[in-house]
Amino acid sequence: MFLEHRMRTFQGAFHNSPDHALWYGWSELVRDLTEIKTAAAELPERAGKPEKEAPKR
Known about the structure:
With 57 residues, the protein is mainly α. It has a domain of 35 residues. The protein has two helices and no strands. Helix 1 runs antiparallel to helix 2. The mean pLDDT is 82.
């Protein structure tokens, strides 16, 4: 995911193609990252374990 979308973003910027850099690179990367974060948030629910609390300082 990262290498493919990162390369498309870089190549689009390098070749002065903002449409290619944005729609086929950056937005695809953000979409995939959102899917990963959503799946990671669902994992504790599926496992039946409570979510870990952040350490208190």
